[in-house]
Design a protein that fits this description.
single chain; alpha+beta; Alpha-Beta Plaits; 2 domains
């Protein structure tokens, strides 16, 4: 039996980077939001052994480095079963786009394998396997609006935001996430070295390397704490209707977006990605000029998005951006219920 699953994308509503941890990862704070753009994953389990990845997009690896391949291995081990697993990936989302496509593909593979094998993993096992394969994966076992902490793999469901119209712009350039993190580390180190003398006054003639690392980590930790409070204030404001109910005349969405702007949440990756790819900064500015109430890079990019008050405003923005030669698509955010209802396409 072949099981087909929609593999939905995500955006980041704010992304804050903390200090590098002992395991090499960085502490993060972000609000994940699933959106109605997707790849399609088809999984078939038959007689035999092995895992085969099929994809017509040459940028997608079809070997063990593919997250779908790695998660399929773990699912077979966890369920103590075997078979020839064929995974077909129909790409509609950009590669290295910051929309979590590879992570979403892997989780869709996991869910499709359960149906194809007629066996179920516990939710705890799903989350454990997902976190072992990649930082973004657990989000796609939750869906809707979720808080991401740790290296992003600790995901906590939040009350769903109302369905919001948005425009997603996918430039042709790809941004490497490891490179973006390395650039962030270099920027952070530079900011520390150029700090006012008062910061160094307790150490002479300078801050030893170990102390510098400790100071950087401390400052980053304090910053993430403040970010957490700002996000909590935005997400728990009493006047925000976190019901997932339809927005009438854009009023709820408008109130929510204005509150988001006032909070001032941002994506730290913009500070290192925009200098490397100034065309991405220009696209964000273009989204803001044509009416986006909030625009941002998603993840480390290169995809950008703009949130709009109404579907009509988003549709008009797509037309204007397309005339500029940009690849722009309208979409909406997905509540948790919508995410799960729309994921399964069919089993045959």
């Amino acid at each position: 039996m072949t099981v087909t699953v929609r593999s939905f994308a995500k955006i980041n509503l704010g992304l804050y980077i903390g200090a590098r941890r002992a395991d090499g990862f960085h502490d993060l704070r972000t609000v994940y939001q699933t959106i109605a753009l997707h790849d399609v994953i088809r999984v078939k389990v038959g007689r035999g052994a092995g895992i085969e990845i099929l994809c017509t997009d040459s940028r997608v690896p079809c070997d063990h480095s593919n997250t779908c391949h790695r998660i399929a291995e773990r699912v077979l081990d966890e369920l103590d079963t075997s078979g020839k697993v064929t995974i077909e990936i129909e790409k509609r989302l950009p590669v290295q786009g910051g929309l979590g496509a590879a992570s979403s593909n892997a989780v869709a593979t996991m869910l499709a394998m359960e149906r194809a094998l007629k066996k179920r993993l516990t939710q705890a096992a799903r989350l454990r396997i997902a976190a072992a394969v990649g930082s973004d994966l657990p989000l796609f076992l939750v869906g809707g609006t979720a808080l991401g902490v740790g290296r992003g793999e600790e995901v906590y469901p939040l009350p769903d935001l109302p369905s919001l119209p948005l425009v997603v712009v996918t430039p042709e350039v790809g941004v490497s996430t490891p490179t973006a993190f390395a650039d962030w580390d270099a920027l952070s180190a530079g900011e520390l070295s150029s700090a006012p003398p008062t910061i160094r006054s307790t150490r002479s003639p300078g801050i030893p390397a170990a102390d510098a690392i400790e100071l950087t980590a401390s400052r980053a930790s304090d910053r993430l704490f403040e970010v957490g409070r700002a996000l909590s204030a935005w997400l728990t404001a009493k006047d925000l209707p976190h019901t997932g109910a339809p927005v009438r005349n854009g009023s709820r969405a408008g109130s929510l977006l204005l509150d988001l702007v006032r909070t001032g949440i941002e994506n730290d990756f913009e500070k290192v990605v925009f200098p490397q790819y100034p065309e991405l900064r220009d696209i964000k500015a273009a989204l803001e000029r044509i009416g986006a109430v909030y625009a941002s890079l998603s993840g480390s990019g290169s995809t950008l998005y703009g949130l709009f008050r109404t579907r009509a405003a988003a549709a008009a923005a797509v037309q204007r951006l397309s005339r500029q030669g940009l690849i722009a698509r309208p979409a909406t955010t997905l509540t948790r219920a919508q995410y799960w209802t729309k994921s399964l396409v069919a089993g045959r």
